[in-house]
Each structure stands twice: as C-alpha cells, then as structure tokens.
Amino acid sequence: MKRRTGQDRSITADWRPATLAVRGGTARSEFGETSEALFLTSGYSYDCAGDAAARFAGEQQGMTYSRLQNPTVEMLEHRIALLEGAEACRTMATGMAAMTAVLLCQLQQGDHVVAGRAAFGSCRWLVDTLLPKFGIATTTIDARDPQAFADAARAETKVFFFETPANPTMDVVDLKAVCDIARERGIRSVVDNAFATPALQRPMEFGADVTAYSATKMMDGQGRVLAGAVCGSEDFVTNTLLPFTRNTGPTLSAFNAWVVLKGLETLDLRIRRQSENALAVGRFLEGRVKRMLHPGLPSHPQHDLAMRQMDACGPIFAFEVEDRVQAHALLDALALVDISNNIGDSRSLMTHPASTTHYGVSAEARGEMGVTEGLLRLNVGLEDPADVIEDLDQALRQVGL
After folding, report:
1. Are residues 311 and 323 in the same domain?
2. What is the pLDDT of residues 78-118, one digit of tens each?
C-alpha cells in the first residue's frame, strides 16, 4: 500500500499542487524505485487463460495491451488529473490527437459545434474542414463575447470548443460566463488550456466539463517529445472517450509519458519564471511595435479578466509589426531567439503564424481571427530576460523599429 500512495486519492487530496506535480500518480514496483519506472512493453502475459479472459471482460484488474494500459502512462494520467482537479485523464500521442479525439468521440452526423474563431491552425482545420466532412455543422464566433455562444447555439448543439488564451492572438475567454451558458443548455464545454496548463489556470473551477492539452508544450517544457491529454469526469473519460481511443489507437508511448512526468516536476517553477520573463520582455516591446497582445499587460483589453481567472499569464504573447516583409526580416535578424513554431519550451522561440502555424487556414479565416501578415508570436524562455531584450532590441533596430 505504501508503494502506491501517489494514486491513493484519500492521501493525495491533502497535497498541494507543487507536491502533486512531483509525487502525484506515482506507483512503485517491488524494487522501491524513487523515480517513476519506465515500462517499455507492448503486451502483458497472464498466469492462465482464464485470467486473460477475465481481464478482457473487465472482471479482473490488470493490463492487457499497451494501446489500452501501460504503468508509466497511467502514472502520467493520474498526475495530470490530480493537477487539473479532474476525476480522470486520458493521454494521447500528440496534442492534436487529443483535440481530434475529444471532439469525434462525442459527435455524430447532425450535431452542431460552436467554436472560438481564434484558435491554433490545426484546431481551426478540425472545425472548418474535418467535422463538416462527417455531417457535423460548425459555427465560429468571437469567443471574447459570451453572448456570441448563446446566440450561435441551436437545439442540436452538443459542444462549445475554445482556447483561452487563444493561439496566437491571445484572446481571453470568460470561462465562467461561457461554461454557465453551456450548462444551462445541456452543452458540453471543451477548453483547450495548453497555453496556461493547470499550473496557471484550472477551467474546471469555472465550470468547464472537459479540458484538453498539447502536453508537448509547457508540460514537457523542453522541446523533447510529443504528447496530448484530455481531462474530464470518470464517466466521460471511461464511457465516451476511452471507446474511441481504444479502437482508433492515438496511443502515447511509455517513453514520452515518462519524459512528461519528469517535465511536470518542474512545471510550476518554469511557467512562473517564464511568465515573469515574458512580462519583462513585453514591457520592453510595448510602444516599440505596432500592436502588443499580452494579457499580463494593462494595455490588453481583457487584462482584468485574465487576472481574475489566471494565476499568471504564461510565457507566450504576440505582437504586430508592419507586414510580412518586416516580420520575416525581424526573425532573420535574431541572434539568440530561435525561429521555431513550437511553444512552451525553456528556450525563447518566435514564429510568423501566417506563414507557419496558420498557413493552412484560409486568408479569410486568418483575417477574422486577427492573424495579420505582420503578427509575430513569441515564447519567452528561461534565459536571462535582459539577453532576450538585447537580442530583440538589435533585431528591431535592424528593421527600422
């Protein structure tokens, strides 16, 4: 019993988030290892044929196949659920596998989804292209206005799907207002919380039904592996999500799960320091560029809302220069900050969304969501912020800013 306290909720209920991030979900083998064990196995053996039959029938506890269960992966799922304050979690191979699964597992022909128009490019592709192929109607709205969700909802609406803060425009959604509208109408709210993670924002505290993650980002935090996660009620994860993932197979590898487990141990430390660094860099850029989009700065139109529902605003923000030519020139002038479309890394990274992450989104949709030709997204890392500022300063001067 003592070896499995990280999965005993009667014990972990008293643990604070920093403790959960280090010890939550840990299950020790008979060897008593202190670090989580890495189980690299595709299958499991049984003492007898009857045990195999009983496990597949759900009459006996135990592993059957690593597409369904793996000890290392289960430790990660327990830990994320504890940090989220959720009853259950299911991990997946990538963040987009998580976003795809969380939508398709609960929707069918004739259903309707209301989605925030400001979203990661691949999430917009799901809403604009994939779901309609299966006869699922979608409506994209300005998620900054809760009334827009109410106005777009229909009798057949099953899901509200949105990001906050949104990628890359940093739109902030009023979680409580939107989730209240969903609950009143029997609609399930699905929140992409990848920019904040449960270390900075816990949507379920505001009434969200489901949260989804690219754990590739801040949860790993060092640009090493791909991973995704979905959190929700035990009923949703077991009876709605699991049948879909069991049979379609977007399985997270044990190695990647182990890496993310290690990343979670330092998540709180990293994301808070990177939030501080991002504020310092944002203050430097403000007034120097055409437009600044940082929820942590008072100039952001939703700054007060962000401060009410987030503990800090994270390492990512966006700003605008004149056009694509100037944006690309600024990127090319960087000496320290890397040109990269990843986020959540301990290294500072910058990208031009219109030509990378949102390249596959139509020009019309990019215009609606505010992804202009001059928009740049910056992930501020763990370097000394003074060095990042000096690099940005020399790059800005090279392009005449």
Report:
1. yes
2. 999 999 999 999 999 999 999 999 999 999 999 999 999 99
